[in-house]
Amino acid sequence: MKKIIEIIKKKWLKDTFLTILLIAIIFAIYFGMNYGVEKLNIEDLDLTTDKIYSISESTKTKLEHLEKEVQIQLINLKDSVYLLDFANKYTQLNPHITKEQIDDLTTRPDLMSAYELQSTDSLIIIKSGEKERALSLYDLYTYDYTTYEQIDVTEEAITNAIIEVTIEDKPRIYFLEGHNYYDDYYFQLIKQSIKAEANEVENLNILTAGSIPENCDCLVITTLKEDITEMEKDQLISYSNRGGKILLLADTSVLGSETPNFNALLDLYGFSISSGILMEQDPNKMIYGSPEFVISQIDSNVLGANTKMNMNICVIASGKIDFKDEETRNNLGVSYQPIATTSDNAFLRTNLTISSTIKTNQDTDSPNSIIGALVTRTLEENKKAEMIVYSNAMFATNQQINMNNTYAMFASKLCNNEDAVINSVSYLTKRTDTITIRKDADNVTYTVTQSQHNIIMAIIFLVPVLIIFIGIVVWQIRRRKK
Predict the structure, then answer these.
(1) What pLDDT band is residue 47 in, cutting at 50, 70 and 90?
(2) Angle 83-85-90 from CA coordinates, rounded to 5°
(3) Residue 452 belongs to some domain of the structure
(4) pLDDT digits (tens, 9 = 90+) for 304-313
(5) Do 330 and 302 form a contact (C-beta atoms < 8 A)?
(6) Helix, strand or coil, per DSSP, at residue 209
């Protein structure tokens, strides 16, 4: 009996020892792998559909050719695993980007003094050479007042800060004012977005300034409510003749005002904008139930070499860009490339009192109408004046658009409208490396084309009806068999 007890004890001790050893090995492997992953800085797997935890293609495009040394300092953020991981992603993206984690701010009195920080304050500092940009945690979020949602803009904020501290000179973008149809308020969102891409943005009144500044890298002109003066016309033509870059966002003249002075500028570029509005009939090229909301794919070969981009804009009650004949354009030294067009089913409506959403006998067929174009004037001494024109301005505003009577969203947030405007500015300021599709916001809205809506409705209503019908047929067959 004693021998049996001793054997059991030995077996129990042996099994216990092996169990403990196995547990120890598992723990050693676990901690070893975690330590190795942390040291190797291996990128996390992002299995979400929209890759919301990954560095976007937009950031990769902007920072791919970064050659300046950049340091991301994370102050008192040891408990923010998300930010620490996100900073690591930047170091993996480009070897010139490094990360410094500062968990005890009392060891850095220089930072406490420079940024007036308390020992417990948190901050992100992006540094390159003598340039620095500080980001508070509040800078990493914004608020959408149309959906009442908080939106995470961490990647956008950090990426734009890196661009800002590494760019030699920020381009200066001026918005022309004095005769505008839209109040300045309507372009505040797009101005903020342009500024966030490391641009200086200012308003310019030629009458008070006396001229267009020499440092103007791009002049943005929006829809006029009245004509410009002779003096302003002369300044605009002079700016163009010295190789100026213009982004024109011009709605059709719904007020019916005559603008001969402003038209003189357009004549230099060999085009005019129609007085009517374009209406779509292709269900794949319009917002559901709204043919005046025309959807068009941007030609990425014009706005950049990134042919992988599939970017759509949605213009609203847009006019049509009419170019003069080839002989006239040749005499002017003008060439153009369409950026966006309607489908071949579009028509032009000049009688705006008509409420019908389909073509009437008063409307005119207008297939493949140009709603966006890059226009180039060849000047002397190998200089070129360039203008990107869209026959619409509303698409770039923060005008609230009611969608299906259920919610509202800003016009600039439809499709890739905001991207189209920012990319146009980037092209005109010779920063084609920043032309991209920016990471989408976290909020999701129901904005579909007519064709997509029809498919969704078919799935919602026809499929259940079909299932019920099949069920009835099967029930009848079984009943008869009985």
Answers:
(1) very low
(2) 95
(3) no
(4) 655 466 889 9
(5) no
(6) helix
| Candidate from 32-41, 59-68, 188-197, 303-312 with smallest mean pLDDT | 32-41
In a domain, 163, yes or no: yes
Question: Rounded to an integer, what is the distance from CA 470 to the centroid of its chain?
Answer: 46
Q: In what order do the strands lie in the sheet with 286-287?
A: 286-287, 290-297, 312-316
The CATH number of the domain where 324 resides is what? 3.40.50.880
Residues 441 and 310 grouped into a single domain: yes
Residue 289 falls within a domain, yes or no?
yes
Q: Look at residue 409 in the predicted model and tell me its pLDDT.
A: 85
Indicate whether this model's pTM tops 0.85. no
d(CA 246, CA 240) in angstroms, rounded, equals 8
Number of structural domains, the chain?
4
Whether residue 209 is found in the same domain as residue 346: yes
The answer to whether position 364 is within a domain reads: yes
pLDDT digits (tens, 9 = 90+) for 376-402: 999 987 789 999 999 999 999 999 887
Query: Measured between alpha carbons, how far is 365 from 348 in angstroms, rounded to an integer?
Result: 6
Residue 174 near residue 216 (C-beta atoms within 8 A): yes
Q: Based on the fold, state whether residues 291 and 419 are members of the same structural domain.
A: yes
Alpha carbon distances (Å) from 6 to 1, 12, 16, 17, 32: 9, 10, 15, 16, 38
* Of residues 64, 105, 99, 468, the one with CA closest to residue 305: 64
Instruction: Give CA–CA dist 225/259, Å, rounded.
Output: 9
* Exposure letters 335-355 (e unless 16+ CB within 10 A, then b): bbebbbbbbebbbbbeeeeee
CA separation for the pair 315, 73 (Å, rounded): 42
* Residue (of 390, 360, 337) closest to 291 by Cα position: 360
| Containing structural domain, residue 62 | 48-168
Do 145 and 270 belong together in one domain?
no
How far is 425 from 34, CA to CA, in rounded Å? 45
Q: What percent of the chain has pLDDT over 70?
A: 77
CB atoms within 10 A of CB 409: 20
The answer to whether 413 and 420 have CB atoms below 8 angstroms apart is no
Please, is 448 exposed, middle or buried when counting C-beta atoms within 10 Å of its C-beta (0-12, 13-18, 19+)? middle
Could you read off the pLDDT of 84-116 as tens digits, one per residue?
988 899 999 899 999 999 999 999 999 899 889
234 and 134 in a common domain: no
The domain boundary, picked from 153, 168, 183, lies at: 168
Domain co-membership, 123 together with 7:
no
**Same domain as 5, residue 54:** no
The band of 446, judged by pLDDT with boundaries at 50, 70 and 90, is very low
